[in-house]
Design brief:
mainly beta
Length: 120
């Protein structure tokens, strides 16, 4: 089993920045891709960004490309999401996710989520 714990959410004004972190523990050897999803009130959970195992290959949703950057530190099993130029529409609960496969289409593990609120 794999456990994911997020940190770094909070309240920020539009145009500001936040950095989310996710620490993985447990059966780390089973993980390939890691990433982030988000869910706003009344909306479905949506993909934000992902990064593959050791290749540093990344993927972003169109709505965050150029503003968000995902990175990964395999030495301490963490993944980060640097969020710049935040907009009110980025307000959501952000979930860390991990998958056995190289793609993040259907994650195998989820964190508990961290709230990000962007005020206008």
């Amino acid at each position: 089993q794999v456990q994911l714990v997020e940190s770094g959410g909070g309240l920020v004004q539009a145009g500001g920045s936040l950095r989310l972190s996710c620490a993985a523990s447990g059966s780390i050897f089973r993980i390939n891709a890691m990433g982030w999803f988000r869910q706003a009130p009344g909306k479905d959970r949506e993909f934000v960004a992902s990064i593959r195992g050791s290749s540093e290959w990344t993927s972003y949703a169109a709505s965050v490309k150029g503003r968000f950057t995902i990175s990964r530190n395999n030495a301490n099993n963490t993944v980060h999401l640097q969020m710049n130029s935040l907009k009110p529409e980025d307000t959501a609960i952000y979930y860390c996710a991990a998958a056995h496969r190289r793609v993040m289409s259907s994650p195998d593990y989820w964190g508990q989520g961290t709230q990000v609120t962007v005020s206008s």
